[in-house]
Design goal:
Low-confidence stretches: 5-22, 271-279, 394-401, 422-432
Number of strands: 9
Order of helices and strands: EEHEHHHHHEEHEEHEHEHHHHH
Number of helices: 14
Radius of gyration: 23 Å
Distance between the termini: 10 Å
Oligomer: single chain
Strand content: 5-15%
Largest sheet: 9 strands, mixed
Shape: globular
Helix content: 40-55%
Length: about 425
């Protein structure tokens, strides 16, 4: 996994009012989308971060912003569920019954949408025939009239909303943004205006959290737009990847950003090795056909927009440190997984957990410097413990020898130095 650290000096926080003690560092969390398996990756990464940085309490941050699947995780954290609790509910299925979010919730057919569109088909066919025969329009223009019969999504989002409503209504939690102890914003996109809808922000905080999450996760083509207050909303990623500016405008000092969707580098050495489950790496993505081409296209667009956003944040909020955590661009395990399949969710959660730990080790010096500015420290004993796992069961990998551990640590130090040298031109900055 790649950890990007963008900490930029310049502006300072406003001085505290007279007679008041200076406030401690304010920390925010921004979670991007990526479908159910994107959420699985974020759960594994969050669990690794929470263990490695013991002062980092993901239930007591100053602000949370989530987009699409990231909105599910952000809402759970803001409601007091710890990363491992979310893991038990979302991945393992061994949480209390009222907390379990089953995979089938994401794949229930949108029968209502299909029936409504189907019922309109006869009238649309008659209209297309009229356009072609009597208005003397082209056959293509006539066929365009039939487009309104196509469903806007094939899976219903109502079951997910109902389940989240129940989870967030349990004792000690709330499905009301206004009743949360911490600021939570779940971003969707207004379909008719193309503008971002920051549910949870003033003017948008009357909408139930479960409704906001369902709207933010309504990826066009897979889920129908969600109707809220007479308007229609779709996936929040259509506007921006992270929407971290919501937190930056709150005046936080440190923003932790997690983005599970990165373009895959198929040119990396060793890409032809056999993967877990017998799948082979594809030397040329075009050989994988349309699904891989579309996946790479979508990931590249999402990530390029994210990179531009991070650069903009450095300019607009120069006094804030930003830590960006992502999967390794050379890692085929996540890229070749079906983002809407749960068959690999346990393996990928463990994969995300272990690779985040490895990445933290490889960049610990740069991260230590940034975290120290906010009163946080890395627990080296926890981070270097080879026996730690996210899920139950023994690790299959044999324990490394002393020589192997020494070589691994040397590689970590060299990687860390390389990152710091590359960022040497910018004060208080370290980039991956």
């Amino acid at each position: 996994m790649v950890v990007g650290v963008a900490g930029v000096a310049g502006a300072r926080r406003p001085a505290p009012a007279a007679g008041r003690a200076p406030a401690g560092p304010r920390i925010g969390l921004a979670l991007a989308g990526g479908g159910p398996l994107g959420a699985v990756w974020e759960i594994g990464a969050l669990a690794a971060l929470e263990e490695a940085v013991p002062g980092l309490d993901f239930n007591a941050l100053d602000g949370y912003v989530g987009v699409s699947a990231g909105g599910v995780i952000a809402a759970a954290l803001a409601n007091g569920m710890r990363p491992r609790q979310v893991c038990a509910a979302f991945i393992e299925g061994d949480a209390p019954r009222e907390d379990i979010i089953r995979p089938s919730l994401f794949f229930r057919p949108a029968f209502g949408e299909l029936l409504r569109r189907g019922a309109a088909l006869p009238g649309l066919v008659a209209l297309a025939a009229f356009v072609y025969l009597f208005e003397r329009r082209s056959l293509m223009a006539a066929f365009e009239r039939l487009g309104a019969a196509l469903p806007t999504g094939i899976f219903a989002n109502a079951p997910l909303e109902a389940r989240l409503r129940k989870v967030f209504s349990e004792s000690g939690r709330s499905n009301d943004f206004r009743r949360l102890a911490r600021r939570l914003v779940v971003v969707a996109t207004d379909l008719d205006s193309g503008e971002a809808a920051p549910f949870g922000a003033p003017g948008f905080d009357h909408v139930p959290i479960s409704e906001a999450v369902a709207a933010s996760a309504a990826l066009p083509g897979l889920f129908p737009p969600r109707a809220i207050g007479g308007r229609w909303y779709v996936d929040g990623a259509l506007k921006k990847t992270l929407h971290a500016r919501v937190l930056l405008d709150m005046g936080v000092d440190l923003v932790l950003c997690l983005n599970p969707l990165v373009p895959f580098d198929a040119t990396a050495p060793g890409r032809h090795r056999v993967l877990a489950g017998g799948h082979r790496r594809i030397p040329k993505l075009v050989q994988g056909g349309l699904p891989l081409v579309l996946s790479q296209t979508f990931r590249t667009l999402i990530h390029s927009r994210l990179e531009l956003g991070i650069k903009g944040y450095e300019t607009s909020h120069p006094g804030t440190d930003i830590l960006l955590f992502e999967p390794d661009h050379r890692d085929p395990e996540l890229f070749l997984a079906n983002l809407f399949s749960y068959s690999q969710r346990r393996a990928l959660a463990e994969h995300a957990y272990q690779h985040t730990r490895a990445d933290l080790r490889s960049r610990r010096s740069a991260l230590r410097t940034v975290l120290a500015r906010h009163g946080l420290a890395i627990d080296d004993a926890v981070l270097d413990d080879p026996h730690r796992r996210l899920l139950g069961g023994p690790r299959r990998r044999p324990a490394a020898s002393a020589a192997q551990r020494t070589l691994a640590r040397l590689d970590e130090v060299l990687s860390d130095l390389e990152g710091q040298v590359g960022a040497g031109a910018a004060p208080r900055a370290s980039t991956a």
